[in-house]
Structures are given as structure tokens and as C-alpha cells.
Amino acid sequence: MILTEYDWHTRITKCAEMGINTIEFWDFKPHNLQILKSVLAEWDVTPLAFIGNWSPRNLPLIDQSKRKAVIQQLLEAVDFATQIEAKNIVVLPGFESAGFDREEMWKSCVQRLGEAADIVSGQGITLLLEVLNRTDHPGAFLYSIQDAIRMIKETGRDLKLMLDIFHQAKEEKDLVDTIKISAKYLGHIQIADIPDRHEPGTGRVDWKSVLNTLKEIRYNGYLGFEYTPSIKSEDSIRKSVNYLKRKLAI
Description:
By secondary structure, this protein is of the alpha/beta class. The protein is 44% helix and 14% strand. The protein is built from nine helices and seven strands. A seven-stranded parallel sheet has the order 1-2-3-4-5-6-7. Helix 3 (67-84) runs parallel beside helix 4 and helix 7 packs parallel to helix 8.
């Protein structure tokens, strides 16, 4: 979503020039593995995460009939992650399907997550379960952090949450409480303001409370910028970093 004014080589170059040495991206399939490895090594940039089942409408975890295709894609994602030394793969449950009841879809999702966890076991890779909001993603099967935690518990595996502040600010009544509930399971956090998914400070999220809560629960992971810049990407990144630093200092 950020630096889309540039090709991939230039995006990584721009990040390095701004002192950003960790990135994340969506789909891994369009990337030429050898070229990506070369550019990452050239600029000493580390990939944090990417989505393992991109296009969850076509590769949903909740559809038992898609099991073979989902597992195959996840195997490819793990190989790709290993090659570029990415430590996290994001998985999306998918969207509710006509003809299936919620219990059936839930069971299928838990089974796929368990299988996916077995695939990454011993690889040094963590699966991140992401929750979407229903306003921007109508029909999203998993939209509640409480349900996501229950799903992780049912797998009996060491999965983590991808907590996207944008999605949860739209779904949950109390964002601070949601962060606290998630503390034990947090693997990564993405940020954007609501309602328009721009830079932090452009909307309704109380970022001071969010940051203070993250300090309170001793979150020591990354904050990924997953928003649409309202200004030139480089200026937007600098603006967002400075804004968050000011909020932390208050």
C-alpha cells in the first residue's frame, strides 16, 4: 500500500535509505525469488511477513473442498519464506460460503490451521492469523479477536495473532481492551487510522491510548504501516514515525 509509486527494487531501496530495514508485503506469488533475494541482500533489508493464502476468496481455510489447493499453496509459501528468511506467514480464514453453516466452516478452518502449523513446525516460521473487519470486507468469516483467540486455542498449536488496528478499531467497541485481551497471542501489529485507512493521526483512533497500552503489555514487536498514504509515500512514512514518537513522548 505504501511506496506503490515505485517498482519493487526501488521500494526496497527507498526503505533502506530512510533507515527502514524490515518490510512486509502481501502476495508472494508475483515475485521472482532470485531477484527479490538479491535486492534484499543488496540493501540488507529483512522481510518480516507475507500472506500465505493470498486471495482468501479463492483459497479459504474455511472451505473443506479447497483443502488440497490451500495446503499446496502453504507449502510453496513456506519454501518461499525459507528462501528469503522471512519469519512469519499470515493466513486469512476467508469469507462465508453459501451452502455451509458456520460450524462446518469453523471446523475446516481449525483443521487447516493445525495442518499449516505442522507444515511450519521446525522451520523457524510463525503463522499469524489475521482478523478482518466486515465493513470493508463483507462476509469475512473471522472478524472478532475473541473468536480468533478461541480458534488458536482449539488448534492446540503455537499460532499467533496479526492484530490490525484498522480492522479492530472498526469492529471492537473498546480497542484498548482488545489489545489487552490479545497480549498473550500477539505476533505482529499493523496500523492505520479509521475510517479512511490513512496515516495515524488522520482519523479517529486514540493513538496515545494504543501506544500506552502496548507499553503496558510490554509488546516488543514491530508496528507495520499498512495504510494508504494521503501524501507522497516517503513524506507519509516520516510523518507517521514522527507522529507516533510524539505520542509516545506525551
